[in-house]
Amino acid sequence: MSESFRWHPEARLFDSTGTEILRESARSPEGTTFPDTPQGLAAAIGRPAFRIGANELPPPDPHEQPILETLTSGSTGQPRRIRRTQASWTASFAVNADLGIGPGARMATLGRLIHSLSLYGAIEGLHLGAEVHLLADLRPDRQRTALSDRKITHLYATPAQLRLLLGPGALPDLRLILVGGSKLDPALRTALATLAPNAQIREFYGAAETSFITLADETTPQDSVGRPYPGVDLHLDSGGEVWVQSPYLFLGYAFHLCPNIPAGGSPTTRWRDGWLSVGEIGEMQDGFLILKGRAGRMVTVADQNVFPEEIEAFLHSLPGITRAAVLPVPDAKRGHALIAILQGDPAQEAAILTTLRQQLGPLKSPKALIWREDWPVLPSGKTDLKALEATLWLA
């Protein structure tokens, strides 16, 4: 039987109040679905199959190997429930132990356990013997206080979650921040150097379906997502689509939980001879992967392929912008034009438009900027592009 998750003898689990959740005191209900709580996680560890949350749905079936079900972020559509072996995560636990995750480390996660990043970080910490603190029930300013008071050394977070942590005071005990979900923009990276002056930052690129694909460190060029993660083989086809082969890949979608997904998978997630693609387009330069964006978001402007993600990354590098999303709108002459929806300082609009036109040219440069005080996000913390698109048409 494949390796399953374990509760390391030195591991400890704490909830948002700082109360320790003892494994022996966790209620262990029958079945394979558990609540999205620290107690639910404690009860799930060691089970041959489990899912956190969605108790009303059919339970996971372990078949012949320990498995778990988790959820994609849903940033470009309906969240999808996926199935993977527990061994596909324990394989990367062994790699990440070299990052200091183990006995003596105090780890924290900021998001709900129904999403793969927070669930992964929590289980990895328990499996390797760390102290694990689940802080999803706290608002961001109180999460920052908890990180300080509990002297957290290792943190799993998305850029959206980290952005909300920014504020007065520093977190000198942080030694490592593992960032997933999307790429750090330069302004946030600079702010993190003040918030956590002693922390190394390791960005990883991947997806719920693939787990780790690349890992970035201080040697990584700014526009890259890093080198292939240990154990990962990368192949880019003639169109630049990224294909992955590794021990960390998922088994497939739980179709009985995702009735809108066709039996073959999803339009962008495809298998080919043991290789998996989630529809990302990129290029390799000197061993580093540079992403352009998802094929599903690519638009054609005057017969030129444009990736909104590239423009969003550029916008995040400009003064006066804290959040950015780029969306296509119909254009009679060019087929599509681009609109940028921004959060930040509207007084910078003229300077931003000038820089966009100078650096990106007339085709890629958004023809208009729309400023918002609020910003719709998904439960995973990523921008809710569908909600932004709906408000665009209502405007």
Structural notes for this entry:
With 395 residues, the protein is of the alpha/beta class. Helices cover 23% and strands 28% of the residues. It has helices spanning 38-44, 87-96, 116-128, 140-149, 159-165, 186-195, 308-316, 349-364, 385-394, and strands spanning 12-14, 33-34, 49-52, 67-71, 81-85, 106-109, 131-134, 154-157, 176-179, 200-207, 211-216, 227-228, 233-236, 242-245, 252-253, 270-272, 275-277, 280-285, 288-294, 299-301, 304-306, 321-331, 335-344, 368-371. The strands form seven sheets. It has an eight-stranded mixed sheet. A five-stranded mixed sheet has the order 2-3-4-5-15. It is globular. The termini are far apart. The model is unreliable at 256-264 (pLDDT under 50).
In short:
By secondary structure, this protein is α/β, with parallel strands linked by helices.
Biggest sheet statistics: 8 strands, mixed
Q: What global shape is seen?
A: globular
**Taking strands numbered 1, 2, ... along the chain, how are they ordered across the largest sheet?**
1-7-6-8-9-10-11-12
Kindly, what is the distance between the CA atoms of the first and last residues, rounded to a whole number of angstroms? 56 Å
DSSP strand (E) fraction? 25-35%
- The total beta strand count reads 24
Helix content: 10-25%
Roughly how many Å is the radius of gyration? 21 Å
Q: What integer is the average pLDDT?
A: 87
Number of helices: 9
| Structural class determined from secondary elements | alpha/beta
Spans of at least 5 consecutive residues with low confidence: 256-264
Quaternary structure of the protein: single chain
